[in-house]
Design goal:
This is Sulfotransferase domain-containing protein. GO terms for molecular function: sulfotransferase activity. Keywords: Glycoprotein, Transferase. It is a single chain. The chain is an alpha/beta fold and 276 residues long. It has one domain: Rossmann fold (3-Layer(aba) Sandwich). Helix content is 46%, strand content 9%. The protein has 13 helices and five strands. The protein has a five-stranded parallel sheet. It is globular.
């Protein structure tokens, strides 16, 4: 079973919550693992289509997956073309938020997990910072897909609406996907706050999680046991996040202004709550 639609990003824009909401619709089946990362050449693409199809069930009318890495074109080139060659009729969903806030959220996330140890005053001059910027350049990221897919086949959603008016957003999204738009989804408004959860875990947890041997072991644990393990670790003091001053925020706005303007023009969406 291959998916009918893909949530292609963006990272730190509510993709986990959206994935869970869609999975509660009786006509929709989401991938068993939220992020298959199948279309990343250096990740799972070599596993082949049989592996990909096995990530989905067989008891729904349509299927979808969520992999925010699909809109990190600088880090992972060729994804849009790979998806099109495999799923030319797929519908795409791209959820976004204020580009500056998205950038900082990714920075904080990687600081917590130890994937990036960068002082704020060095952030914009680092390789990681440049990659964060690219993820917040929504027009540039979406343009890669428009080389293959028509704009009307891509649903652009805003994180602010997912948080403030999820019923309205989901109704339009269900219509886009061709499923019953009157279905009521339970638990709306419970935005998944991964940052708070991660801050409660000790630093060595993330180093262990990146170990291939330990990762292989933990993947064999049931989801319930993995959840219990994380809860047991949360007596550790939360780690403090780095302070980002207004000067850095102003520079981010300047660097992202042009792309954001093009994105508004492309989508026809005002994104009124954004800072730029």
């Amino acid at each position: 079973m291959a998916p009918d639609f893909i949530i292609i990003g963006a990272m730190k824009c509510g993709t986990t919550s959206l994935h869970r909401y869609l999975d509660r619709h009786p006509q929709i089946g989401m991938s068993r693992s939220k992020e298959t990362d199948f279309f990343l050449a250096k990740q799972n693409f070599a596993r082949g289509l049989d592996w990909y199809r096995a990530q989905f069930g067989n008891d729904a009318e349509i299927y979808g997956e969520t992999s925010p890495n699909y809109t990190k074109a600088t880090e992972f080139p060729g994804v849009a073309e790979r998806i099109f060659r495999t799923l030319p009729d797929a519908k795409l969903i791209y959820i976004v938020r204020d580009p500056v806030n998205r950038f900082l959220s990714q920075y904080f996330h990687h600081t917590i997990t130890g994937e990036a140890v960068i002082k704020p005053n060095q952030l914009l001059h680092s390789d990681a910072g440049r990659n964060y910027l690219e993820c917040s350049r929504y027009h540039r990221q979406l343009s890669r897909y428009l080389e293959f897919y028509p704009l009307e086949g891509i649903f652009v959603a805003c994180f602010d609406e997912l948080r403030s008016a999820p019923e309205s957003l989901l109704r339009r999204l269900f219509l886009f996907l061709g499923v019953d738009s009157d279905v009521v989804i339970e638990g709306l408004g419970q935005i998944h706050n991964q940052r708070s959860e991660l801050q409660e875990l000790p630093p060595w947890y993330f180093h262990a999680r990146r170990s291939p041997v330990l990762r292989s072991i933990t993947r064999r644990l049931s989801p319930a046991l993995q959840s219990t393990l994380r809860r047991q670790l949360r007596h550790w003091p939360q780690r403090r996040l780095p302070m980002v001053d207004e000067g850095i925020r102003a520079e981010l706005k300047s660097l992202l202004q042009e792309d954001t303007m093009k994105f508004r023009e492309l989508t026809g969406m005002p994104f009124n709550g954004w800072s730029l």
